Amino acid sequence: MSALENSRVTGVLLDVSGVLKDGETAIPGSVEAIRKLREAGLTIRFLTNETQMTRRKLAASLIDLGFCLQERDIIPPCPALVTLLKRENMRPHLLVHPDILPEFDGIDKSNPNCVVVSDAADNFTYENLNEAFRVLINMEKPRLFSLGRGKYYSDNGGLTLDVGAFTAALEYAADIKAEVIGKPQPEFFMSVLRDMRVEPQEAVMIGDDIVGDVGGAQNCGLTGVLVRTGKYRSSDEKHPTVHPDAIVDDLAQGVDLILKSRK
Ligand SMILES: [Mg+2]
Questions:
Q1: pTM value?
Q2: Which tens digits make up the pLDDT trace of 27-77?
Q3: 112 Cα: distance to centroid of ligand 1 (angstroms)
Q4: Could you say which cofactors this protein requires (predicted)?
Q5: What confidence tens digit (pLDDT) does each residue in 120-175 have?
Q6: 21-45 b/e (C-beta count within 10 Å ≥ 16 → b)
Q7: Which residues are 203's β-sheet partners?
Q8: Using CA atoms, how far apart are residues 51 and 148, in angstroms rounded to an integer?
Q9: For residue 210, how far is its CA from the centre of ligand 1 (angstroms)?
Q10: Which of 21, 38, 147, 185 has the fewest Cβ atoms within 10 angstroms?
Q11: What is the pLDDT of residue 6?
Q12: Is the link from the previous residue into 184 a cis peptide, with omega within 30 of 0?
């Protein structure tokens, strides 16, 4: 807890799944916690690797749960990837969740020169994975973009395979290294901080992923706080390389710590 004491926190980055909500349910105290952060005048962004729905749909679902936020406060990896694809004239073969296909409207997908993989959930069939592999292996210069590389997440109380596991399979088979867009990629954190006009040492990241959220944030100079909700497992507290600046029971406790540190 000590890292937060005497700190000058002006910005807070929050993971969504496992911190605000678990599956379709708000985690107790989290709606009120966001309200407290807003009342304290802190700048907030929701930094998520969510790729099962568009940003608009995610915002609507969180507002339905009672959270005080706007669509523009939510930062998923997809818009950053779309910018990159356009900039580098990439024509993707998509292995993604059908609900995020609208994010790729206006992108040329003919004659693919890269593969994009996101949390495709039920779309991760053998057939679809094998097709993505075949597209990659037949490219002269294969490029694989992965939207995050989480191992697993908590969905309605059960741990569920995340995109990282499937990305690893494609990397292994095609003998390439994926380019990750999303947490824990440093540029993902830094671009959000620039947009917030907040320095890394004035920012706190709260998440349930010890590597993607806490480690990713600490690598960029932010304070990294782990919550004991969502995918949290007690073994995370003995992680060999990532040591959170604070570990809290839930978002509500994390927010109270931040607000106390400012007094
Ligand atoms: Mg999470």
A1: 0.91
A2: 999 999 999 999 999 999 999 999 999 999 999 999 999 999 999 999 999
A3: 31
A4: Mg(2+)
A5: 999 999 999 999 999 999 999 999 999 999 999 988 778 999 999 999 999 999 99
A6: bbeeebbebbbebbeebeeeebbbb
A7: 11
A8: 9
A9: 9
A10: 38
A11: 60
A12: yes
**Which residue type sits at 189?**
F
Q: Ligand 1 centroid to 18 CA: how many Å?
A: 5
Instruction: Tell me how far the alpha carbon of residue 153 lies from the centroid of ligand 1, in angstroms.
Output: 6
Q: How far is the CA of 57 from the centre of ligand 1 (A)?
A: 17
> Quick one: DSSP state of residue 29?
T
Rounded CA gap, 29 and 202, in Å? 24
Distance 49 CA to ligand 1 centre (A): 8
- How far apart are the CA of 77 and the centre of ligand 1, in A? 14
How far is the centre of ligand 1, averaged over its atoms, from the C-alpha of 111 (Å)? Answer: 35
